[in-house]
Design brief:
Blueprint (H helix, E strand, L loop, with lengths): L5 E13 L5 E15 L2 E14 L6 H11 L4 E5 L5 E5 L1 H19 L2 H13 L3 H10 L1 H6 L8 E6 L7 E6 L2 E3 L5 E5 L2 E3 L5 E12 L5 E12 L3 E11 L1
Antiparallel strand pairs: 1-2, 1-13, 2-3, 3-4, 4-5, 6-7, 7-10, 8-9, 9-11, 11-12, 12-13
């Protein structure tokens, strides 16, 4: 699927949720990526993000601190097959150790119990390599960036949607092609975590690849209808720049 021996690229990631009351919340960042061909596939290095904005403003206070803990995980090495499948991590112990060091620096700087408590969420994610691997696979950027269109009946699980501690799972059964060779999915097949509040859902996914096989642009639009609340919409775009 890929057609390169070594490459560096930057992607703009945008996500926006529109709540049932019409209010919106958005997040934007730039993701820096390096990849090279190996004997058994490709080695991807996710070098981390920059230029983050929350609702068109630089993150402040608690949001900025939470973002620091997330950024402290990088760089993250991935093992990716020639077909684009995310098959594992490279040097998990190295990731874990440099995060621990950066974590302590953040805790010492802010000297707050709440900050240390927040860091424990990430520590749990790094408890085992298998756990961290599966968390990354569920991350929306990784899930869409490493999309495998050759697979049938794929699912997209959107966490914290429509609200915190909720999720919506969309199943894509068929794909179509646009005039440029891009792939389009469209589904009404949706389930949630079992709350019984979900009345309906609709999602569309559009993926276009560049000549080297990397995504040129990805867009996901999803909407769910909640009992006694109304419609919630999630929009995600990943664009190579």
């Amino acid at each position: 699927m890929y057609n390169f021996s070594f490459i560096e690229s930057v992607y703009e990631f945008n996500t926006c949720i529109t709540f049932a009351n019409g209010q919106k919340s958005s997040f934007r960042k730039l993701e820096h990526i390096q990849a090279e061909e190996g004997k058994d596939g490709y080695a991807f290095t996710m070098k981390g993000s920059s230029n983050e904005t929350l609702d068109d403003k630089e993150p402040e206070d608690w949001d900025a601190i939470v973002l620091e803990f997330g950024k402290a995980l990088y760089p993250i090495g991935l093992r990716v097959s020639g077909q684009g499948e995310f098959v594992g991590l490279r040097d998990f112990e190295g990731i874990k150790e440099h995060w621990k060091a950066r974590r302590q620096e953040i805790i010492d700087y802010y000297n707050s119990y709440l900050i240390e408590k927040e860091s424990n969420r990430y520590a749990l994610a790094l408890k085992t390599e298998d756990k961290f691997y599966h968390i990354l696979k569920e991350n929306m950027f990784y899930r869409l960036f490493l999309w495998q269109e050759s697979l049938q009946n794929q699912k997209v699980e959107i966490r914290d949607f429509p609200t915190r501690a909720r999720l919506a799972i969309f199943s894509f059964h068929e794909k179509k092609y646009d005039k440029t060779g891009g792939i389009i999915y469209d589904t009404y097949d949706v389930t949630d975590e079992g709350s019984g509040q979900l009345l309906s859902g609709h999602a569309k996914l559009h993926l276009r690849r560049d000549k080297d096989g990397l995504p040129g642009e990805i867009s996901l639009w999803a909407r769910v209808e909640e009992k006694d609340a109304g419609f919630f919409t999630k929009e995600i775009t990943i664009k190579r720049i």
